[in-house]
Amino acid sequence: MTTKIEMKKKILIFILAMLSIISFAQKKEIYLDEDSIQKEDLIEISKNKFDITVKGYVYFNFQFDLDSLILNVKVQRIKKGQIPNKSLDSIKSELSIISGKTIPDGNVIVINYYHGLDRCHSSGNKSYISSGHKRFSKKIKEIENVSQFSMYKSSKGIKKYGNKSYWIKDEFGTIQKMFLPLHYPCGSYVLIDENGNYYIQKGEYAFEEIFDLLKNKKTTFTNNTN
């Protein structure tokens, strides 16, 4: 037989559950595209625009459940564009200082970027992944006119991807702010040619993709879209 105290407890639990549901339902839900975050102007877009996809492009849809709202961010996984010469010179100077390597004029910059530990980086065979990075590092050094850098935002879990000395920190957050403002699963890469044209892939990728892109520079760095 249910006592009055037990009944009161059940009623209290029910009320708290209902309040939680009501509170969640009252949260404002807003939609942004990633360009807005990079420019730090946070221009809201409509849900209809958020849901539109362009043929030939692949998107991530990120959702962040904040205290007072639900934030949805639309991310175009592959992106091309061009940075000004001043920004290119700044990136080259910064990479040279951090790594101790000179970037010759005319070289394509290749940046393999590790955002930090996530579900993707928490699994997989450690020795297989480490050897894969070593093979990539050796193979890309054989390509002329390419300067390659392995960068990280957070070093947690990075030992799986080879010796930590193999990696350099995005010390001033320049690469993140300019190209990779969010944490994309399984890492990303950025290619920048001698004229400041760039090609970015956000999220999981295969090393062979990079070699193919470097073989076809004309296609890779033309028809730039923002």
From TrEMBL:
Organism lineage string: Bacteria, Pseudomonadati, Bacteroidota, Flavobacteriia, Flavobacteriales
Protein name: Uncharacterized protein
Origin superkingdom: Bacteria
